Amino acid sequence: MEVQRSAYLKRLIGFKDKDLIKVVVGIRRCGKSTLLKLYADYLRSTGVENSRIQFINFEDFNNAELTDYKVLHEHILSRLAPGGMNYIFLDEIQLVKDFEKAANSLRLRENIDLYITGSNAYFLSGELATLLAGRYVTIEMTPLSFSEYCAAVTASAAVSTRASAESPSVPEGTLKLYDQYLRYSSFPYTLELDNDIEKVHQYLAAIIDTIVLKDVVQRKQISAVAALERLMKFIFSNIGFITSTKKISDTMKSFGFNIGVQTVENYLSALEDSFIIHKVSRLDVNGREYLKANDKYYVADIGMRYYLLGDKMKDYGVILENIVYLELRRRGYKVHVGRLGDLEIDFIAFKAGIPEYYQVALSVLDDATRERELRPLEKIRDNHGKYIITMDQVFGGNDRGIITVNALRWLVSSGYSQ
């Protein structure tokens, strides 16, 4: 089943023929290769001949000889079609040693529009950034959004859920789809696994093993693999909770792993680079200053969390918070945890420098809970958007300038940054 990643595709189309390398990054198996293929199909639909499209996947053993950047460079140049733009797609380019040298040289050709993907963030901070400062744009992909998942499961469900954005209730079946989305994973290929939890877990185990062994252990030359895996489970178990590397180090020692704060920081950095976890720093609302300690972490896929932790799926409040965080990122926001005095705001989300404020709660029907969620938002003195996102069947509520919206309705609404 090929999922149409329309929001990401539109972003790529917007950069077509611009003098920028398009860099698509994201966790393994989130759909980067499919996105490039969808874009190549789009090009063909506009009249671009196959001779002007080169697609190289470096995970394909048939392309092993092209992992030498000089050989790759010559291979591409020798196959360019004359007289017009050529579109070059290089998939999982981090497997090419010194790839940035080839990429920089290819970018200089006026008849080349270059697109690359990678499953690690670290390569963007190395030679690529040095050689190509200001000459590339990054598009970060995630596994499927809930809206994409609904559309992929059934076309009729997609029409129903999208049409519901202004309706007075969540459409029948949406909650069931949401439960499936959490349990059976948001990775696109899991849609082929017939909601068979054993097959899904085998697939997720393979992704985790690949990330841990290839993207983290090999690159960081980590010998204490068991400690790394235990740390990863700790993060997955504590999504949405403020924590510090000192606390993590102390907890790891209580588990019998004697690793210090610096080692914890190195492990976390490697896991972030692989996109399996996301660190969210805290920001002082009034002073707009970053707070140096005690961050929050979220995970790339809740199905993966369920595979690792089992009954921790019962933590529906923090799971919803995780889902909202990922959705804000998909919609083009830069996201932080907010602090206002001794109060916390779940998310400050910036777009074009303008903030919006979000509280996430499983339910706010209880008066005390509702007042607790409203209090931090009430104390913010600017007039930018303030929202409470909840699973309650509450629609369009406006209390003291704070909008309460149903989470499922919000997730299927058209809010992507274009």
Provide an overview of this structure.
This protein is α/β, with parallel strands linked by helices and 418 residues long. 42% of the residues lie in helices and 20% in strands. The chain has 16 helices and 13 strands. It has helices at 6-14, 32-45, 69-78, 99-107, 127-131, 146-153, 155-163, 174-183, 197-220, 225-237, 245-254, 261-273, 302-309, 316-330, 367-378, 407-412; strands at 21-25, 53-57, 86-91, 112-118, 136-140, 277-284, 290-299, 334-340, 343-351, 354-361, 386-390, 397-399, 402-406. The strands form two sheets. Strands 7-6-8-9-10-11-13-12 form an eight-stranded mixed β-sheet. A five-stranded parallel β-sheet has the order 2-3-4-1-5, sandwiched between helices. Strand 6 (277-284) and strand 7 (290-299) form a beta hairpin. Helix 3 runs parallel beside helix 4 (99-107), helix 6 crosses helix 7 and helix 9 crosses helix 12 (261-273). The longest helix is centred in the middle third of the chain and has 24 residues, at 197-220. The radius of gyration is 22 Å and the shape is globular. The two termini are 25 Å apart. The model is unreliable at 155-168 (pLDDT under 50).
Order of helices and strands: HEHEHEHEHEHHHHHHHEEHHEEEHEEEH
Structural class: alpha/beta
Proportion of helical residues: 40-55%
Question: How many angstroms does the end-to-end distance come to?
Answer: 25 Å
Q: Please count the beta strands (DSSP E, at least 2 residues each).
A: 13
